[in-house]
Design goal:
Among the domains are: about 240 residues, no CATH class; about 160 residues, Alpha/alpha barrel (Glycosyltransferase). The protein has 16 helices and 31 strands. It has a 17-stranded mixed beta sheet that branches. The chain has a three-stranded antiparallel beta sheet with strand order 21-22-23, with no helix packed on it. The protein is globular, with a radius of gyration of 26 Å.
Length: about 675
C-alpha cells in the first residue's frame, strides 16, 4: 500500500512538473554604448548554467533553475567584467500551445486579447505580441491560457521593487539615470507558437502607451553596471489547468495573493477621522447660485480646488450621493450647516433636476450655459441609488417625501421602457428613449436601484426587472468573462464593469429567497475575481522627485482603471463590503484579508493640513493617481493630472467607510 501511495504521489508530482520540452527558452542580451545604437547578442546556455554569446562580452550571465512542484524558479545573475549598459531578455516558447488558440492576461491591463480596446490603445488590433513595463500591472505577471486544452502558464517577477529611475525620454533607447527595479513582461507570437517574454530593465514593444489613446514608438531601457557590479533577477514560471478563462483569472489571483501577501497599510486613518476630514469637501464645495444647488466635484484644478460651474448626478460627480452623505453626517454630528446644504441640494433637484420625460438632468455646465442631452444608464442609476438611500433614511427618521417617491417611480418606469428583452440596458440614450449606444456593459449599475426600489416600494415588478439584468449579466458578461464599457469616458475592458457586476449580484442576494440567493452569491464571487485582478498586490517604486514616492505612497490595494485609462484610483464604493461578505459566505479568507488592505491603503493620500499631497484643500481626495509611465496630458508618473473630480472619490471612500449601509437597507432590523 505504501509503495502504491508513493507511486501515485510521484505520478501526480511528475504531472505537475514543467516539462523542459514544453518550455523552450531563448536568451538575448542587448548592450548599448553611449551615443551609439545598441547591439543584441543571442545567448546559449552551457552545462554549468552560464549564458554565453558567440563572442566575449563585458558581462557574465548565469541562470539557475529550481523546481517547486508546478513552478520553476529562475534566478539570473549578471556580473559586469567592465563598465556596461545592458538589457536582458528571455523568451519561453510554449511548444504545445498555438498562439491562435490562446487568450492572455496581464492583470489590471490586459484581458483576453484586449479587442474591446481601440487600436490607439494596447490591443490585438495593433499587434498580437506585447511586452510592457511591470508597473503597468496590478501584479507583475503575464499569463497565457489555451482555450483548446485549458492549460495555462504564468510568469511572475519576484523582487523587492525598491528603486526607480527618471527617464530622459519616453521612447527609443534610454540609458537610465539611476537604478530601477522595473523589468518587463508580456507575450509573443513566435512563428505561430505562443511564448512568455520577460526581462530587465523595462522594454516595451511594439509600442509604449504614454497617454490616453496615444501609442508611441517602442522603448528599451538600459541599466549601467560598473566593473565588478552584479544584478540578480528572479522570475517564477508556473503551469496549471483551468476549466475556462474565469477559472484561470481566479487561480492567478489566488496565486498572486499567496505570492505577494500584501500587508495592511499600518498608518491608516480611523473611520471617524476620515469622515471628519472628508466632510470639509461638503463644507467648501457647496454652490448655491444656480437653480440646482450642488457640491462642486468635477472639472476642478488640483492646485486650488476652486468650485466650478459643472454639476453631475453620477459617474465622477455623484452630487446626490454626496448630499445624502452630508445629510446623514450632519445629523450624526449636529452640524446644521451640512444639514441645510444637503437638504437644499435635494430640494433643488426635486424642483429643477429632471427632464420633461422624467430622467435626471445628468450633467449641467453653468459656466458655458449648456448641458448634455444624451443620458446614460449608469448616471441615471447612480442618481436613483442615491435618492433611494435618502428616502429610506428619511423614512426611518419619520419624514415622508411623496413627491420624491413619485419622481423615482417615473424614473424607474423609464428604466422598464429602456430594458431590452435580454435584460440589458443601453449604455446611452436621449430623453425620447432613442438609443445612441446599445452596449450592455453598464447594465449592472441599474441592478442596484431596482433591487432597492423593490425593497422600498414592495413592488415585484422592480425585482423582476432586476432578475432580468442578472440573466443578461450571467449570459453575456460573467459566463463569457467579458467586462466592458462601464466607465463612461472609455470603451474598453474596465474594472468598474466587473466591480458593478459583482456588487449587483450582492444586492440581488440581499433581496432574494435562499435558493436564488446562493446562485447570486456564486455569480458575485465569479465576477469579484475579475474586479480583484485590477487591484495592486505590490508597491510600485518611484524615483526621487516623483511626488508620490517622496511622500511614501504605497500602491497596494489601489485599483487600475481600464485599458485606456492606465492610472490607479480609489473606486471601491461597496466592493470592500462585498469582499467581506463573500469571505464569510464562501469561506474565502483571502477576500477579507485583501479587503483590509484596500480599506487601509486607500485612505493614505487624505489631504490634511501639513500633509496635503499636492491638493489645494483639505478633504478633496485625489483622483487620477499616475503610478506608471502614462498620463492624461499633465505631469506623468508620480503626480496627478492637473484636473480632477473629487466628487466621486469622496463618495466612494464614504461608502467604503459605511459598511453596514447595504445590509441595514435590506434588513432594517439589523444595526
Amino acid at each position: 500500500m505504501k509503495k502504491r501511495l508513493l507511486s501515485v504521489v510521484l505520478l501526480l508530482f511528475s504531472c505537475a512538473m514543467i516539462d523542459a520540452q514544453e518550455v523552450q527558452s531563448e536568451y538575448k542580451i542587448t548592450l548599448k554604448s553611449p551615443g551609439n545604437p545598441a547591439e543584441s547578442y543571442t545567448l546559449t546556455e552551457d552545462a554549468s548554467g552560464y549564458l554565453k554569446a558567440s563572442q566575449l562580452l563585458p558581462i557574465e550571465i548565469r541562470q539557475q533553475k529550481e523546481e517547486h512542484g508546478s513552478a520553476t524558479r529562475i534566478t539570473v545573475t549578471l556580473r559586469a567584467t567592465d563598465l556596461v549598459y545592458y538589457n536582458f531578455e528571455e523568451v519561453c516558447k510554449l511548444s504545445t500551445m498555438q498562439h491562435a488558440d490562446c487568450q492572455f492576461l496581464m492583470p489590471g491591463f490586459w484581458y483576453h486579447r484586449n479587442m474591446r480596446s481601440p487600436k490607439e490603445a494596447p490591443s490585438f488590433a495593433t499587434s498580437d505580441s506585447w511586452q510592457v513595463r511591470e508597473d503597468r500591472l496590478s501584479t507583475p505577471l503575464t499569463g497565457i491560457y489555451s482555450d483548446k486544452t485549458g492549460d495555462f502558464y504564468t510568469v511572475v517577477r519576484l523582487d523587492k521593487f525598491e528603486n526607480e529611475s527618471l527617464a530622459t525620454h519616453s521612447a527609443g533607447e534610454i540609458i537610465l539615470t539611476d537604478k530601477t527595479s522595473l523589468g518587463f513582461t508580456g507575450f509573443r507570437n513566435v512563428g505561430g507558437t505562443t511564448a512568455l517574454v520577460f526581462g530587465f530593465p523595462y522594454s516595451e514593444a511594439p509600442k509604449t502607451y504614454i497617454r490616453k489613446l496615444t501609442l508611441a514608438p517602442a522603448v528599451q531601457a538600459f541599466e549601467k553596471l560598473e566593473k565588478g557590479e552584479t544584478r540578480q533577477l528572479v522570475w517564477e514560471i508556473r503551469k496549471g489547468k483551468a476549466a475556462d478563462y474565469s477559472a484561470f483569472v481566479a487561480d492567478v489571483w489566488n496565486y498572486s495573493y499567496d505570492t505577494y501577501r500584501p500587508q495592511v497599510y499600518t498608518d491608516a486613518m480611523s473611520t471617524a477621522e476620515a469622515k471628519r476630514v472628508l466632510s470639509n469637501f461638503f463644507t467648501e464645495s457647496y454652490v448655491n447660485k444656480y437653480d440646482l444647488k450642488y457640491f462642486s466635484g468635477v472639472h476642478m484644478r488640483t492646485d486650488d480646488c476652486e468650485s466650478t460651474g459643472s454639476v453631475e448626478v453620477g459617474f465622477v460627480g455623484r452630487v446626490l450621493l454626496n448630499a445624502f452623505n452630508a445629510l446623514e453626517y450632519g445629523e450624526q454630528t449636529n452640524n446644521t450647516d451640512l444639514i441645510n446644504k444637503a437638504n437644499s441640494v435635494f430640494d433643488s433637484y426635486l424642483k429643477h433636476g429632471f427632464t420633461p420625460n422624467g430622467f435626471f438632468r445628468e450633467f449641467v455646465d453653468y459656466s458655458h450655459n449648456n448641458e448634455t442631452d444624451i443620458y446614460s444608464i449608469r448616471r441615471q442609476s447612480e442618481g436613483a441609488f442615491a435618492i433611494l438611500n435618502y428616502l429610506n433614511y428619511e423614512k426611518k427618521q419619520g419624514r415622508k417625501h411623496p413627491e420624491w417617491e413619485a419622481k423615482i417611480k417615473t424614473l424607474l418606469a423609464n428604466f422598464q421602457k429602456l430594458q431590452g428583452q435580454d435584460g440589458s440596458f443601453p449604455r446611452k440614450f436621449d430623453d425620447q428613449f432613442r438609443v445612441t449606444d446599445p452596449s450592455g456593459g453598464s447594465t449592472p449599475s441599474a441592478t442596484l436601484p431596482l433591487t432597492m426600489a423593490y425593497t422600498y416600494f414592495k413592488n415585484k415588478e422592480y425585482m423582476e426587472s432586476a432578475k432580468r439584468t442578472a440573466v443578461y449579466l450571467e449570459k453575456e458578461l460573467i459566463s463569457k468573462a467579458d467586462y466592458f464599457s462601464s466607465t463612461l469616458d472609455a470603451n474598453c475592458e474596465d474594472k468598474e464593469a466587473s466591480l458593478y457586476a459583482s456588487t449587483a449580484m450582492y444586492y440581488l442576494a440581499m433581496a432574494s429567497a435562499p435558493k436564488e440567493r446562493d446562485r447570486y452569491i456564486d455569480l458575485s464571487k465569479k465576477a469579484a475575481y475579475f474586479s480583484l485582478s485590477w487591484y495592486y498586490m505590490w508597491d510600485v517604486p518611484f524615483a526621487q522627485g516623483q511626488m508620490l514616492g517622496d511622500v511614501g505612497f504605497k500602491s497596494r490595494g489601489w485599483g487600475n482603471v481600464s485599458v485606456e485609462n492606465n492610472h490607479v484610483d480609489v473606486f471601491i464604493f461597496e466592493f470592500a463590503t462585498v469582499l467581506d461578505w463573500l469571505a464569510k459566505e464562501r469561506n474565502e479568507p483571502r477576500f477579507s484579508q485583501f479587503s483590509s488592505v484596500i480599506k487601509s491603503s486607500m485612505l493614505q493620500l487624505m489631504p490634511v493640513k501639513g500633509h496635503m499631497f499636492n491638493i489645494g484643500k483639505v478633504g478633496y481626495y485625489p483622483e487620477v493617481v499616475q503610478h506608471t509611465n502614462w498620463d492624461y496630458g499633465k505631469n506623468g508618473k508620480g503626480f496627478y493630472n492637473d484636473i480632477f473630480a473629487p466628487g466621486w472619490t469622496v463618495a466612494s471612500l464614504w461608502q467604503m467607510l459605511s459598511p453596514d449601509r447595504v445590509e441595514t437597507y435590506f434588513n432594517p432590523k439589523k444595526k
